[in-house]
Structure formats: structure tokens, C-alpha cells
Amino acid sequence: MTPDQKFAHYVRLSLVGFFFVFIYYLVADIFLPVTPQARVYHPVVQISPQISGRVTNVLVSNNKPVKAGDVLFSIDQGPYDLAFDQAQLALDDAKLQNKRLDTNVKALEAQISAAKAKQHEQKLLKSRGEKLYKQNSISEQELETIRANYEASKASVGAYEAQLAEAILARGESGDQNLAMRHAANQLAQANLNLSYTQIRALSDGIVTNLQLLNGAYAVAGQPLLAIVAKKADLVADFREKSLLHMKPGSSARVVFDSRPGEVFDAQITAFEAGVSSGQLSANGLLSSTETSNRWVRDAQRQRIHLKLLDDANLISNMPSGARATVQLLPDSVIGQWAGAAQIRFISWLHYIY
Predict the structure, then answer these.
(1) How far is residue 190's CA from residue 196's CA, in Å, rounded to a whole number?
(2) 34 contact partners, CB below 8 Å, separation of at least 6
(3) Which class is 49-75+200-223 in CATH?
(4) Nearest alpha carbon to residue 350 among 264, 268, 266, 269
(5) CB neighbours (10 Å) of residue 335?
(6) What is the distance between the alpha carbons of residues 260 and 323, in angstroms, rounded to a whole number?
(7) How far apart are the first and last CA of the chain?
(8) What is the pLDDT of residues 25-44, one digit of tens each?
(9) pLDDT tens-digit profile of 308-337?
(10) Fold classification of 31-42+231-276+302-354 (topology level)
């Protein structure tokens, strides 16, 4: 065989090999989908204080586990102790003020009793004066004076009764239902709550990571100061849409982690993500924007699925958030499962190289 014939032979073999590889790629992309775009994600809890103040004591260390309820750091209690004392004084003052109002109510009730007695006396004098006037025993001027005194006594009773109504309204309900008492008690409860916020606690189990907080830093309410990576983990994988054509929740899968080359783990699809960020519309008051692309073949859209490990469910909870993985989905057919298992096993060996 001449060199030209050998070259032509190798070219034909290459073309045939390329053809079979291309066909395998098309078939495998639909029936044996695999993706290296898979990660382990842990929920990250950002710890933000609910009050502002100087950080006085950081009680945790970087990359150390914490339990729910553990104190992470403390904020200077001085200002909040004073606020609590001030609220307590306001409550005591409200109690004292209510006692003053009670005394005022009793005093007005006594004044009303005296005014009514005076009114009764003036009423008797008026009746007697009218009889004497008819008998011409007193002058008309004296009668008018008696009548004026009676009307003045009636007005005095009315004035005292109005003052009593105002005093009762200012006093409000008695006991803890009194409005002033409720306001003061609410301020005291808020001061006590703020005082409890000086101890910032973990709300879930996890590991403190990327800790930069030091004693003396000023904490601002609502601003994150540290993060806790929760133990709970989720394994997600992104596939092209057409690759998920024959897959459904419950379909079998195989997973290979970059951190554990050569090991293949059985898995199962648990859920399909409802959508991706590129499919989200927001009511921003603007007109719709169309997608523009000069490419004849656009990039395939990827969809996210969630998986769970069947061999060791706790394995991913001990992996760092962001750990990379490769996921192989398996069809229902026996031949397809065998081919998929062989394909992911080959990939697991490649992880020893890259």
C-alpha cells in the first residue's frame, strides 16, 4: 500500500469514526444525558443584628460549628440598660399619675356632692322666697337674687360634673388596661426586647465561615456581619432542555464528585425547577424587550433539576457549598442504564486526571 493509499485509508477511518462519534453524541444527548454543571449548595444564613451598637465580644471562630441558640457575638449593653431603666421609670410614673387622677376623681365627686347639697338648699330658699313674695313679705329684687343664687348652684353642679367626666376620661380604665399603663408597658417590653438583642444568637445549626468580625467593630441594624453555612444541602444539576425530554421525578441517576474521583454514587431526581432567571418578568412599567442574537444556532437553554443520593444521604451535607459534580441521567431501558453506567464510570476515572 502506497503512502497515498495509507493516508486515504486513515482519512476514511477518521471520517467513519467521527460519524459514529457524532451519532453517539446525538443519541446520548437525548437518551443518556450527562452534565458537568452540577453543584452542592448549602443554605447560607446571613447574621444581621436587630440593633446598632459597638461589638464587645465575638464568641465564635472561623470554620467552627455552632448550634441553634449559641451566642455568636455581643453588642454593648450600656445604652440599652439605660433605655430599659428609663422605660421602667416611665411605667412607674404612669402608675403614680393614675393615682393622682384617682385622687382628683374622688375630690371632684366630693365637690359634686357638696354642690348638689348647695343646690338643694338654694332650691328650698327659692320655693320659700316665691311664697314670701306672693305674701308681699319680700321685694321682687330679693326674689331675683334668690333665683340667681339657685341658678348659680345648678351651674356649679354642671361644671363639677363636666370636670369629673374629663377626669374620668383622662384616667381611663383601671388596672393594666389603662391606656397610659399600656403605653408604658409596651415601651418597657420594647426596651427589654432590645436588651435581649444585644446577644446575637444562631437560629440554626451550621458552620461559621469567612469570619471578619472583631471586637470594637460598630454593628448597624440590618447589616450582615457574618455568615453561617447550614448543614442542610441540595444537589442540583443544569441540563439542556432537550436532554430532559425522557426524564421525570423519580428517574435514576449517577453522580461523580470532583472531590471523590473514581467513586460513583446512585441518585434519583426529586424535582424539576419551576423556571430560570431569564424567564422571569417583572412589573417595572417598561415595554417588553425582545431577545436579540446574530447567531444562526443560539445557545441551548438549560433547566435545573434537584437530586438526592441513595447510597449516602448525608454525604453532601459534609461537603462544602459549591462542590462540583458530574451527573449522568439513566433511561428506563436496561441497555440504556448499562450504557449510562459505563459512561459515568469512564468520567469518574477521568477525574483522576483533571
Answers:
(1) 10
(2) 28, 326, 327, 328, 329, 340, 343, 344, 347
(3) mainly beta
(4) 264
(5) 9
(6) 11
(7) 40
(8) 666 667 888 999 999 999 99
(9) 999 887 899 889 999 999 999 998 888 888
(10) Elongation Factor Tu (Ef-tu); domain 3 (2.40.30)
Pairing of strands 34-41, 234-240: antiparallel
Rounded to two decimals, what is the model's pTM? Answer: 0.69
Helices 78-134, 179-196: inter-axial angle, 10-degree rounding: 180
Query: What one-character-per-residue DSSP string does 138-189 give?
Result: S-HHHHHHHHHHHHHHHHHHHHHHHHHHHHHHHH-SSGGG-HHHHHHHHHHH
Q: How far is CA 240 from CA 194, 266, 271, 275, 304, in A?
A: 51, 21, 16, 13, 9
304 DSSP β-pair partners: 238
> In sequence order, which residues have a C-beta less than 8 Å from that of residue 185 and are 6 or more positions away?
91, 176
Which residues share a beta bridge with 306?
A: 236, 271
* Alpha helices, H only, the chain: 3-31, 78-134, 140-171, 179-196, 334-350
Q: Which residues are 267's β-sheet partners?
A: 253, 309
At residue 25, the pLDDT reads 65
For 40, residues 6+ apart whose C-beta sits below 8 A from its C-beta are 233, 234, 235, 257, 316, 319, 320, 321, 322, 323, 325
What integer is the mean pLDDT of 242-252?
89
- CB contact at 8 A, 337 and 28: no
Contacts of 205 (CB under 8 A, 6+ apart): 65, 66, 67, 68, 230, 231
User: d(Cα 286, Cα 288) in Å, to the nearest integer?
Assistant: 6
Angle CA(122)–CA(128)–CA(134) in degrees, nearest 5? Answer: 135
**Within 10 A of 294 (CB to CB), how many other CB atoms are there?**
5
By the 8 A CB rule, do 152 and 125 touch? no
Grid cell listed for 146: 334668690
268: left (phi over 0), alpha (psi -120 to 50) or beta: beta
Under 8 Å between Cβ of 229 and 305: no
C-alpha cell at 39: 453543584
Pull the grid cell for residue 51.
Answer: 440593633
**Residue 80: which pLDDT band, with cuts at 50, 70 and 90?**
very high
